Amino acid sequence: MSEFKKRKVTQKQLKNHDASDSESSSTHESAINDQQAPGEEAPETAKTFKELGIIDQLCEACETMGYKAPTPIQAQAIPLALEGRDVIGLAETGSGKTAAFALPMLQALMDNPQTLFGLVMAPTRELAYQISQSFENLGASIGVRCVVIVGGMDMVSQSIALGKKPHIIVATPGRLLDHLENTKGFSLRNLKYLAIDEADRLLDMDFGDSLDKILKVLPRTRHTYLFSATMSSKVESLQRASLSNPLRVSVSSKYQTVSTLQASYLCIPHKHKNLYLVYLLNEFAGQSAIIFTTTVNETQRLAFMLRALGFGAIPLHGQLSQSSRLGALNKFRAGSREILVATDIAARGLDIPSVDVVLNFDLPMDSKTYIHRVGRTARAGKSGVAISFVTQYDVEVWMRIEWALGKKLKEYDAAKDEVMVMAERVAEAQRQAIMEMKNFDEKKGSRGKKFGKGKRSRDDMDQEEG
């Protein structure tokens, strides 16, 4: 690949440039050692949930859900939580964090049944629904009642659901704060447990002010669990504000992909990206694929273009209505649509069981996001394919990703002659997509919500901007 040879970036430059990616993993370990109580050793990985102290009823629920053995983060966090300690858990998405805080909360709920017992805060609506589903499945035998409080849904029906006094509330901070301020009779002054999931993302999405206001109205005497992929200065501040004498546990977050993943890149001119995308989708016809882009606008445009070419593509981004977002996910999970075109809203947290191919149409700007994206495929021991588009503008970004991975990936062998044959047809589909985008933008504009314009309300904050 000639572009790579021409661009000489020294190891030292890469280290400095990618400091934000590599710093966190080294600081994790030193911070963990500092936080551990004197004479305490890191707990060994348990073979069963019963060995962790989980009661038989919940162990059976774990078995029903297919949890065969505790993951490392569960093995470390659950015993401390059962002892009544506040816990900070550092682990990547997909490491089993939800059960790590859900099981101790449900076990405590069984010992002390109470309405409005626990609150879980999550950064995105989809993740909130997913967490609620996990609580309901794990607590099915005790009839646990959960309610999801997120933006984009009717506040009146949510107020009615809160009035029925559920055991667990799973919420995005913006909409929860709206209810705390405006819903008569709703209070969390008797709350016993608080879990903050994906704390780094919550703070990256400007939820800091909302979180501060929510924490002020919660009782000081409570158990708190904070889970995050990284321990940034913002997360450290949140920890000091929300936790009491916490213990920190961590699963080593090295930059790595699973061995069953076949990862490669395509070095192409920027103007031919659409052509190569269609070529690859034809190559992997019949297989499920996620196409990642960096903007809402590009996500919607590609979905229109692919539909014009006869592909079953569906978009997923933060400026769709909540019902449309859930509908897109459900159609993709059910297999009625084989292609999901998405912003990074689909990169973390969401459990999509079977994805054959991941295509990075737009490269992510950091290696951590790359790991999350390609982690959508090759899950649970299955094989998968990940191909990244590298144009003349992306060379340095790609080199940083390879450096963080610690290896050079192979170039995907594409038949250029076959690609160029489709030029006329793809150009026509692109013209149709542009026309549809104009109509789509006008409809959005008539409702006061054009792409990328206007201030974000509190209700819109829990939308992933991509």
From TrEMBL:
The keyword Plastid does not apply. Transmembrane segments: none annotated. Residues 1-10, 446-456 have a biased composition (Basic residues). Its EC number is 3.6.4.13. GO terms for molecular function: hydrolase activity. A motif (Q motif) lies at residues 47-75. Residues 78-249 form the Helicase ATP-binding domain. It is found in: Nucleus. Residues 47-75 form the DEAD-box RNA helicase Q domain. CDD domains: DEADc_DDX47, SF2_C_DEAD. PROSITE patterns: HELICASE_ATP_BIND_1 (PS51192), HELICASE_CTER (PS51194), Q_MOTIF (PS51195). It catalyses: ATP + H2O = ADP + phosphate + H(+). Interacts with the SSU processome. ATP-dependent rRNA helicase required for pre-ribosomal RNA processing. Involved in the maturation of the 35S-pre-rRNA and to its cleavage to mature 18S rRNA. This is ATP-dependent rRNA helicase RRP3.
